[in-house]
What does this fold into?
Amino acid sequence: MDSIVKQLTDIEKELSKPFPYRDTNKIQEDFSEDFSMLLEDEDCLTADFNTYCMNIAGTLSYVLVEQTSQVPKHNIKDLEMTFFQHFKQYKFLEDKIDNYKEFFQEYKNFEKTRQLLLLLLKK
It folds into this structure.
C-alpha cells in the first residue's frame, strides 16, 4: 500500500500541467464530421475530459491527505471506468489520441492515477 501511495505522490506533479486545450481544439477540428453527428449535449469534449480528470484529481487529494475513508462512493464508482467507457460518444477517438501529444500524455497520466487509486481504494 505504501508503494502505491508513493507512486501517487510522484505522479501528482504530472497532473498539474496545463490542460491540453490546443489538442482538444485540434481534435474537434480534425474530427469535425464525427463531432457533428453527436447530439448537442454530447459534444463537449473539453468539458467532459476536464470532468473526468477532476474526479481523479479530487480523489487523489483525499488519498494524499490520508483521508481515504472520506472518498465519496460515487467517486470510486466513477474510477472504475476509463474516459472512453464514461463517454462512449468519443469512442471514435480512442485509438487515435496518441496523435495528439499533450492530450495523450495527460490521458496516460490520469489513467495511470485512476488505476493506482482503484488498487488502493479497493483493498
The helical segments are 2-12, 21-30, 32-36, 45-64, 73-79, 83-86, 101-121.
